[in-house]
Amino acid sequence: MSAAETRRPRAALSFRPADLIGQVFTPQALDRISALLDVDTERVVTDTGSERDRALLAEAEVLLAGWGAPRIPPPLVPRLRAVVYAGGVAATCLADPAEHAARGVRASNARAVNAAPVAEYTLAQILLANKRARPLEREYREHRRMPERPSDAGNYRRTVGIVGASQVGRRLIELLRPFALDVVVYSPELGPEDAAALGVRTAGLDEVAAQSDVLSLHQPLLPETVGQIDARVLALMPDGATLINTARGAVVDEAALVAELRTGRIEAVLDVTEPEPPSPDSELWTLPNVVLTPHIAGSIGRELHRIGDSVAAEVERFAAGLPFACPEDLGGPGHA
Predict the structure, then answer these.
(1) CA distance linking residue 94 with residue 90, whole number of Å
(2) Is 60 exceeded by the pLDDT of residue 5?
(3) C-beta atoms surrounding 141 within 10 Å
(4) What average pLDDT score do residues 319-331 get?
């Protein structure tokens, strides 16, 4: 076999800070990548103004990038053929995604991979919410005696409303299948055939809010979804219902939510807020019917290794001449 036939494509790593490499990739994942790409795992591009980093980029045929990576314009990567992004949107690290696409650059992202822990977190919160676990725990601690168990507690035949049939929303639907729950979805993009394939029914936002014992948010942050969950929608939720937000903080009107929570009528589980963290004087810190977690639903700790393994798998597909498992259209809407 000739040297040309065994030559590994040159690759560059781009994360900021550089020590994210050790958090995302296990040694085994880096070994899988190094077996197929000529990459120095000790050299990480963090600054496109750096002469050293520009030299790395100039030779790169494959860019392995992730959180914090600087935006790279096409002239700095004249040989680039593919981007494998350890995050939600590969275009985040490209200064002109459409130009890269016009040059034939292919891209992959880890959005679907990161959907798994978000859906798992949400599933856990749904099951606890329907069990009335947190209100009962508060009462138990306060009175130090066995509380009366509500007749409407439990997960059997409860209704879970999902706003947004995103990758997280769809993954959550899969996780909910083993449970005796009725799942109703509001998503303008979800047609009847897709809904039938997912095994869910669809309805308008107002109807979903009014029917849901738990209302879980998974819509993207777009101009039309900013403040989408407002006072009117919140007022439609049944007494004792729980709102779960793992989407973006800005899809909820916080002032309206706080006003509703003050009444004690509903509960909330918030993994995201706007701003993040909430302002120091926000009542979200002190309201007893709020579970406030610091944006942990997505990949953290060992879960980051799932993303690193997915990057390695995409590199293996690239080396074998196969399409990416999780492709991203760099020339598509939103990447112009």
Answers:
(1) 7
(2) no
(3) 9
(4) 96
Domains and CATH numbers, the chain: 3-109+301-319 (3.40.50.720), 115-292 (3.40.50.720)
* Residue type at 321 in one-letter notation: G
Alpha helices in the chain (DSSP H): 3-6, 20-24, 27-34, 51-59, 97-102, 111-130, 133-143, 167-176, 192-198, 205-211, 231-236, 254-262, 304-319
Q: Pick from 296, 290, 243: which is nearest to 272 by CA? A: 296
pLDDT digits (tens, 9 = 90+) for 159-174: 999 999 999 999 999 9
Query: Using an 8 Å Cβ cutoff, are 63 and 54 in contact?
Result: no
Phi-psi category of 301—alpha, beta or left, where left has phi over 0 and alpha has psi -120 to 50?
left
Token pair for residue 12? 């560059």
Residue positions annotated with a catalytic role = 248, 276, 295
